[in-house]
Amino acid sequence: xxxxxxxxxxxxxxxxxxxxxxxxxxxxxxxxxxxxxxxxxxxxxxxxxxxxxxxxxxxxxxxxxxxxxxxxxxxxxxxxxxxxxxxxxxxxxxxxxxxxxxxxxxxxxxxxxxxxxxxxxxxxxxxxxxxxxxxxxxxxxxxxxxxxxxxxxxxxxxxxxxxx
Length: 164
Hints:
Number of domains: 1
Radius of gyration: 23 Å
Distance between the termini: 63 Å
Strand content: under 5%
CATH class: Mainly Alpha
Structural class: mainly alpha
Number of strands: 0
Largest sheet: none
Mean pLDDT: 83
CATH architecture: Orthogonal Bundle
CATH topology: Helix Hairpins
C-alpha cells in the first residue's frame, strides 16, 4: 500500500498549452445551453439567486446524508424552543442561536472536508486523510460540547425557577 500522494493524483487535470488554439467566437455554444450541460460538481453561480440555491443544495445534502447534522439540528431546535417557552432574555436566546449555528456550520465544513478528502484519496487508506477527517470531526465535537455547556448555563436557572 502506497501512502504517498503524487501531484498527478492530487491534480489529475492538465493545463492547456500555448500551442492549443482558442475556439473562434462563432464556435462557442449558447451560454444558457452551456450552463445546462455543465457538470454538476462544477457550477458557477451566474446570479445571487443561483448562489443561494447552491448553498441550499449543500445544506440539503448534509441533512439527507449526515446523521449527525440531523441530530444537531433537532437538539438545536429543542434548545431554541425551550428558550422561547421559558422566555429567556433576547441576548441569551441569541447566544444559544449562535452556538447552534456554529455547530451546524462546523458540521457542514466537516462534510465538505470529508468529501474532498475522499475525492483526493479515493478508497485507499492514507494517514494524513485520517488525520484531516479526525480533526474536522473533533472540531465539531468541541463545538457541540461548548454549545451544550452554554445552553445549560443559560437554561438551567430558568428551568429551576419553573420547577421549584
